[in-house]
Amino acid sequence: MKDEHCGYCMKNELLDPFGIYICDLPASILVLFKEQSHPGRCIVASKQHVSEVADMTDEEAAAFICDVKHVAAALRKAFNPNKINYGSYGDTAGHCHFHLVPKYKDEFEWGGTFAMNPQQKFLTPEEYDEVIAKIKAAL
Q1: pLDDT tens digit string along 38-70?
Q2: Are 31 and 45 in contact (CB under 8 A)?
Q3: pLDDT tens-place string over residues 60-111
Q4: Phi and psi at residue 77, in whole multiples of 5°?
Q5: Which residues pair with 101 in a beta bridge?
Q6: Is the pTM of this model over 0.90?
């Protein structure tokens, strides 16, 4: 089931305030988070409009987590972070999604919880295209 008011479901301009659609994965979609204080930060959003992983069948949840794992491996390959943080909040979105946040020692927020939207670093369209190309090449 899709929600026509949900950017993750519709993959359209509803994503524009915070993300750029990258591609479909088997159980989810991949979105680049526009705020790039953490180079490579992405969102993996379920293709189902459900609020929680617990709302999925075991098979659906396994497929979704498999996508999260696949994207994390691609981010490690593309950006060589020291750690990837995972966040799943969705208090207001109502659509199950994970933020995958590459973290780098001696850089922004190392050793602490990442800020949801620190509003510190935005890229040019060409720079976003470069980041997306790196991620796609590593998938």
Answers
A1: 999 999 999 999 999 999 999 999 999 999 999
A2: yes
A3: 999 999 999 999 999 999 999 999 999 998 767 789 999 999 999 988 788 8
A4: -65, -45
A5: 85
A6: yes
d(CA 42, CA 75): 9
Of the candidates 102, 89, 33, 24, which has an alpha carbon nearest to the alpha carbon of residue 63?
Answer: 24
The amino acid occupying position 13 is E
Evaluate whether 94 touches 6 at the Cβ level (below 8 Å). yes
Specify the CATH superfamily of domain 1-99: HIT-like (3.30.428.10)
The residue ranges of DSSP E strands in the chain, in sequence order, are 19-24, 28-33, 42-46, 83-87, 97-103
Distance CA 40, CA 75 (A): 7
- The secondary element (H helix, E strand) that includes residue 7 is helix 7-10
Do 98 and 68 form a contact (C-beta atoms < 8 A)? yes
DSSP 8-state class, residue 114: P
Q: How far apart are CA 93 and CA 6, in angstroms?
A: 8
Q: How many whole angstroms separate alpha carbon 17 and alpha carbon 121?
A: 14
